[in-house]
Structure formats: C-alpha cells, structure tokens
C-alpha cells in the first residue's frame, strides 16, 4: 500500500488530512440528508474556484490507492478542465486512470452523467457551479436557507408557471430543479435534462461539490429524484428524434450540435466521447469478423 | 502504557481513507454491513470505535460518551484526535454501548431546520451485526430499514442493542430533517449505518 506513494512532495491526494476529515464528515451528513446543502470550508487549490474545486475536494477526500479514476468535462475525457484535474490527481496519488466508464471506481464529472449504466461500486462526483436552486427567485442566502427549512418552494413553482405562461413550456434546460426524497429541491448541477431521470432510484451514489459556493450535497442510491413539473406540462428531455451521431451512428445518446463555420452545416456527435469511441471500436471489430 | 494506546495499526492517510469509504458506502446504503478491513489487529473492545474516532474526529470536533467504561477511551480520543469532550447535548459525536441504557441519549443534538447537518453522529458499539433476519443464535434484534439508499426494505440482525436505545433513536429521528445519524460498530469490526432518513421497525 505504502510503496504506491508517489514522490510529488505533497500529501497523498494533495489535501492535508485535517481538510479531508472535515470534508468527509460533511459528506456523511450530506448522504444522511439527501438533497440538503451542507456548508463546508472550501480549501484553496492549485486551480481557481469555479473550475471544479468542489468536485475536486470531494474526489481528493474519497480517493485511495486502489481506485481507478475517470474525469470528464461535458462528457469528454480530453477537454482541458478534465485533463488538468486528472493530471493533478495522478501526480499526487499515482492512481490508475481510465476512459472506460465501466471500469472506473470513481468518476469526477462536469455537467454530464456518462451514458453507460453506473453500478453500486462506483461513485459519481459532480462539479457544481451554483448549488442553490432557489437563487433564480431569491438572491439572499439567508432567505433561501429559510425557504429550504420550511420546504417553501412556492416561489419556484410560480417561476415555472410564469415560464409556461410566457413561453408555452418550462425553458430551464440544463440545471433543471429536482425534488429529492420528497423533501428538498436540489440543483442537479448543469447536466442536460437528458441525464435528470438517471438520478432517480439509481444504483450509484451521487456526490455534489460546489467549491466557490462552499456546499456539499448528495443523492444516495435508490432515492426518489423527481423533476419539478405540472401534470398538464410534464417534464421532457431533449428531443433528438431523426438525429444521430455522425461518428458512431448512435440514436439513443445525448448529442452535441456542431455547426460548420464555413458551410453552416449542422451535424451531431455524442457528448460522451469515450462511449462513442467504444461503439465505433465495437463496430469495427464486428465488421472485421463479418 | 496500555495496549489500546498503540495506534501503529492505523495509518492516518490510508487507514482513514479505507474506513471512510466503507462508512460512506454504509451510510449511503443503510443496513448494508461492511467489515473494517482497513484496520488490522485482533479484536479488542475499543479497536473499532477507536478506528472510527481516528477517521472522523479532530480538534474541530467535540464528543461525549454515555454510560460507564469509556474513561480510557476519552483519554485516547483527547490525546490522539485532539477532539474535546462535551456534554451529550452539545457533542458532535456521541459514543454509547448498545446494550447499556443511555438515559442521556434523548438529549443529543438533532440540529435545527436551518442547519439539520448539526445533528450529532451517534456511534453505537454492539456485539455482532448479521445481514438479514438471523435469529438462529437466539439473540439480537431484527431491524428492518426503509428509505433512501434501500431498495424496498433491508434487514439486519444486531446483537447487543437494547430496544430502549432503539426507541430513543427512533424518537430522535421522528422529525426529519432533524435527527441523528447512527453508526453501529461491532466489537468484531462489522459496520452498519442508520442515517436519519431511514425509517425502521424491529422485532
């Protein structure tokens, strides 16, 4: 165990043990009160606040030498934010990394849930920019905390109602507010609507960390997570009917729209790049064997 | 020096990480049982509660012990974690023997509606924890848990836990989100959690 210690000049996983202890205590409380935002003393890290420091501090407090780590940013393993976070974690822990969702024990993500199903031995850590779902209707932290205490979400419901009056449907795309365990309204971080149903009654533990806003919250497995909706205006996910991934041909994944600068042509590719690559590889192999 | 005071078996970085991950897994899946395998050494009365104290407690926390027999453990915690003893109604962590009456248990902190996370963590030492309903041994209470983290219902059998203490925990958790989160830890190193979000029945 100890021979895995890497010589980075830092403590294992960068954070000092007392910081980890505090974050661990908060995580346990977050899990015990699903959807409730637990305050914590967010630490300084070698990346700026607002760039995933919340998720990073959770990962640093969770990770052990036997973990297999995956870090994604908007579904991609190769984007700068994910690459830098992965580098820092590898430098200070020496853990194995992977791009394969099915292999990772610990996944840190910015704004996506991987397409492939997650299991009970995996943990998904979200980077959260704005943890407070009531902020769009109330600027004061003192007031929003009171509103959560009293489970008073009427102003958010009015906001959603007015959205329908104005636009004919609820216009919140990413960051769609959800009710957790019938008690707390929670911001699921800016994941697309596509991913929201996958928070409900999942196998995996979901942990959310907001570094700049200094909040930790959680959705344990097998927990009810319901998007806020009206019976006559039910929640719906993004509509990709008639579209498919230009690379792997997938028609059942969340797609990014790419617009060609010169021709203006639109095409779609999988947001989960590792899954897309895996599908292409499987296709090729099947082609070779045929 | 007492044998209990040797903590060479506990690596502050790697043991605490392993113990924490098992704790988190059990807290996220109430009633699931883990074996504290990050902790080596033969079974001793205080070994596993000490491992939990070393994992969770530091100078920023306070703790209380309920019932007799904890005096040496109090000194241990003060010395090795820096945590300070406090009255049961103020402590962050409350240690209790499951089979001993804890009249003060009903006083422990449940947090408030603005900050329910300030509710205490109760660390309850028991004899053994078995998965499922295991009454063959003729001892133990069968606990049935429901709520977040539990697909349907999860059963576990706990030996060394009185119905009075259970009833007290249930009462403390009757006003969610206020409440306490309980860690059951057996003298053999088994671990199971009952967060406040769980509803429980027993027989």
UniProtKB/TrEMBL annotation, chain A:
InterPro entries cross-referenced by the UniProt entry: PhnJ
GO molecular function annotations of the record: 4 iron, 4 sulfur cluster binding; lyase activity
Q: Which Pfam families match?
A: PhnJ (PF06007)
What GO terms in the biological process aspect are recorded for it? organic phosphonate catabolic process
On the tree of life, the source organism's domain of life is Bacteria
Return the protein name. Phosphonate metabolism PhnJ
TrEMBL record, chain B:
Any idea which GO molecular function terms this record carries?
Answer: lyase activity
Keyword annotations for this protein, in alphabetical order, are: Lyase
Pfam families (alphabetical):
PhnH
Q: Does Lyase show up as a keyword for this record?
A: yes
Q: Which GO terms describe its biological process?
A: organic phosphonate metabolic process
Protein name stated in the entry: Phosphonate C-P lyase system protein PhnH
Q: What is the lineage of its organism?
A: Bacteria, Bacillati, Bacillota, Clostridia, Eubacteriales
